[in-house]
């Protein structure tokens, strides 16, 4: 009898499985001038957003917002270093790293995907998406056929291909095309490298189609495009740009792979606010001439934790703010801006007869949090741990640390005062002698020298507390190790015999943070204090922590790193999404690198 029941059950399950429709497979191909979906011309109107910058609980909302703006496709970068934080340990399954789930949600809304997996992506993201562990190699060369780099690239792409292959349009998934590298013509000219990346994808079951993305200049297109791959232009703003691309790569479609509705912002700058009329004029050109294009970005999200990158302009270093709002049509918290409504109205004019855009989703609730007190909790100085000895200072990465801070300490022998030179500082340093702050150095301002005053101590102790901010993510300075990258001199004398104390501020390190009975002697000016406070909620909702009363540092809420703050602005509020909060008590910890006394905090419903 039991066998009969088992057989019947097996038959029932088999019948149910066979009645479940398989995902519909499609074809996506490149003709001489058009994209072809199932053999018919298809115009891509794409909204870019990055899953790792968005709480996964809000993925569906942001995708629906893009659909309501008039987009039929989502473009998404995959950040290699978010999925391989430690060498050889991959995560494509948890939280906002679950790329397969994101792709399924896009498909559930009836949209397609342009996948932009790097290995290098730029994106104002730390190290352009490359994993900082690569920087342990003193001979490192990236974005070319340097064997150790390529071994890591092949390992990453093989792992990612397992996620991507079943999501390709030919397998019934939403992914139309995969990008090869990103803006390679702005960096290098190793044509064999670009071809090798495509070969790796094919060897792992991804047959394409593929596309590249480059600036609309002859040298960038020559170095960065690939035979047989669609040509993306960053950006394609006029007919001349498209004609130039066709001249370099005839026989494949050309599209604007990055049409910019907003722009990035660095610390110490005013918020970028590009012209809306110029944007609308450009988009109307693209729509009226039947061009395919991708808004970079339609929704930016947030550089949570230490993920914000940096550029190498100005005086050599320009770190990006924590917010990646980007002045995008969908703001950091997911709300429709006036720019969103203007684009939605424009795109709607070009819909086929009788078609209409879906309604705009309701906004995610946001609340004010009443002012609450912060109190001294502990200090960096009570959590130094065991030092690492070295003749000369070494970079963070050489100590096995990618982010956070390192305290470099040495006893001054011979020279005790005079001109101190750090060769070279990456990125921000507090200089102290015998526990007293002497001054600060900021790489943004080109600073690397400071005067040490005379001291009566025959054996003074020099401390240099260095904060590594974002690794440079674009152009030729991308090999950007953190900390003290060479050596330190005092009045011409090279200082040797250092002790380095690692302060990575990682989740595991923060989990060991403990309260100190007395964080610092009364009257001490030594910075590096942690402050702690709590607030209560009946029901979690999004909020923005107002950091106006603080100087420079990092904020954690319920153990989640919201990112950096800095009183030089322009960002004064840090986005704290509801999924990081809970009903009842919520704990806030602030690391302050400038001020030595806490200020109250509050939350606002917007930035």
Can you describe this structure in just a few lines?
The protein has 11 helices and 32 strands.
How would you describe the overall organization of this protein?
The chain is of the alpha+beta class and 607 residues long. The chain has three domains: 42-348, Glycosidases (TIM Barrel, Alpha-Beta Barrel); 369-375 and 513-604, Galactose-binding domain-like (Jelly Rolls, Sandwich), CATH 2.60.120.260; 384-507, Sandwich (Jelly Rolls), CATH 2.60.120. The chain is 20% helix and 27% strand. It contains eleven helices and 32 strands. The strands form seven sheets. It has an eight-stranded parallel beta barrel, surrounded by five helices. The longest helix is centred in the N-terminal third of the chain and has 18 residues, at 2-19. It starts with a helix and ends with a strand.
Oligomer: single chain
* Strands ordered across the widest β-sheet: 4-5-6-7-8-9-10-11
| Overall pLDDT | 95
Q: In percent, how helical is the residue content?
A: 10-25%
Uncertain regions: pLDDT < 50 for 5+ in a row?
1-20
**Quick one: CATH superfamily of the largest domain?**
Glycosidases
Radius of gyration: 26 Å
What is the correct CATH architecture of the largest domain?
A: Alpha-Beta Barrel
Distance between the termini: 68 Å
Classify the fold: give the CATH topology of the largest domain.
TIM Barrel
């Amino acid at each position: 009898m039991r066998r009969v029941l088992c057989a019947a059950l097996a038959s029932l399950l088999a019948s149910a499985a066979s009645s479940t429709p398989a995902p519909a497979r499609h074809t996506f191909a490149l003709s001489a001038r058009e994209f072809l979906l199932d053999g018919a011309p298809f115009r891509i109107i794409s909204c870019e957003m990055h899953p790792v910058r968005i709480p996964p609980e809000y993925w569906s909302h942001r995708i629906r917002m893009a659909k309501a703006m008039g987009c039929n496709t989502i473009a998404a970068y995959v950040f290699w270093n978010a999925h391989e934080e430690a060498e050889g340990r991959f995560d494509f399954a948890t939280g906002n790293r679950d790329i397969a789930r994101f792709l399924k949600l896009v498909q559930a809304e009836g949209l397609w995907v342009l996948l932009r997996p790097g290995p290098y992506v730029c994106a104002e993201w730390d190290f352009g998406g490359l994993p900082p562990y690569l920087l342990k190699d003193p001979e490192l060369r990236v974005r070319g056929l340097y064997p150790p780099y390529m071994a890591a690239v092949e390992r990453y792409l093989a792992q990612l291909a397992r996620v991507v292959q079943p999501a390709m349009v030919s397998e019934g998934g939403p992914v139309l095309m995969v990008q090869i590298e990103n803006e390679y013509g702005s960096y290098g000219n190793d044509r064999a490298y670009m071809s090798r990346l495509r070969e790796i994808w094919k060897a792992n079951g991804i047959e394409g189609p593929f596309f590249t993305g480059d600036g609309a200049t002859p040298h960038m297109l020559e170095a960065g495009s690939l035979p047989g791959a669609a040509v993306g232009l960053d950006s394609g703003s006029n007919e001349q740009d498209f004609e130039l691309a066709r001249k370099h790569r005839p026989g494949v479609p050309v599209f604007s792979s990055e049409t910019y509705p907003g722009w990035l912002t660095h610390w110490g700058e005013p918020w970028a606010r590009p012209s809306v009329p110029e944007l609308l004029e450009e988009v109307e050109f693209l729509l009226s001439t039947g061009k395919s294009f991708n808004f970079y970005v339609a929704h930016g999200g947030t550089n949570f934790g230490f993920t914000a990158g940096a550029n190498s302009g100005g005086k050599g270093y320009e770190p990006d703010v924590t917010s990646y709002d980007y002045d995008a049509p969908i703001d950091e918290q997911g709300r429709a801006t006036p720019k969103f409504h203007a684009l939605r109205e424009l795109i709607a004019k070009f819909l086929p007869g009788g078609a209409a855009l879906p309604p705009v989703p309701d906004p995610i609730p946001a609340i004010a949090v009443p002012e609450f007190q912060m109190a001294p909790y502990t200090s960096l100085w009570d959590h130094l741990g065991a030092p690492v000895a070295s003749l000369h200072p070494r970079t963070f990465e050489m100590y096995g640390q990618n982010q956070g801070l390192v305290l470099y300490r040495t006893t001054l022998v011979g020279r005790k005062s005079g001109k101190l030179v750090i060769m070279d500082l990456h990125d921000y340093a507090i200089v102290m002698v015998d526990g007293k702050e002497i001054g600060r150095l900021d790489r943004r301002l080109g600073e690397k020298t400071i005067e040490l005053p005379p001291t009566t101590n025959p054996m003074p102790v020099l401390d240099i507390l260095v904060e590594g901010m974002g690794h440079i993510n674009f152009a030729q300075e991308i090999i950007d190790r953190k900390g003290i990258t060479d050596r330190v001199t005092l009045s011409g004398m090279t200082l040797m015999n250092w002790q380095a104390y690692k302060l990575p501020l990682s989740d595991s390190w923060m989990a060991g943070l403990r309260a100190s009975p007395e964080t610092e002697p009364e009257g001490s000016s030594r910075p590096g204090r942690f402050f702690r406070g709590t607030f209560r909620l009946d029901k979690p909702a999004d909020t923005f922590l107002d950091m106006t009363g603080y100087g420079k540092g990092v904020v954690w809420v319920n153990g989640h790193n919201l990112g950096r703050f800095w009183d030089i602005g322009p960002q004064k509020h840090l986005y704290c999404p509801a999924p990081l909060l809970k009903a009842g008590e919520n704990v806030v910890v602030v690391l302050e690198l400038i001020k030595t006394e806490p200020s109250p905090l509050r939350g606002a419903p917007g930035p």
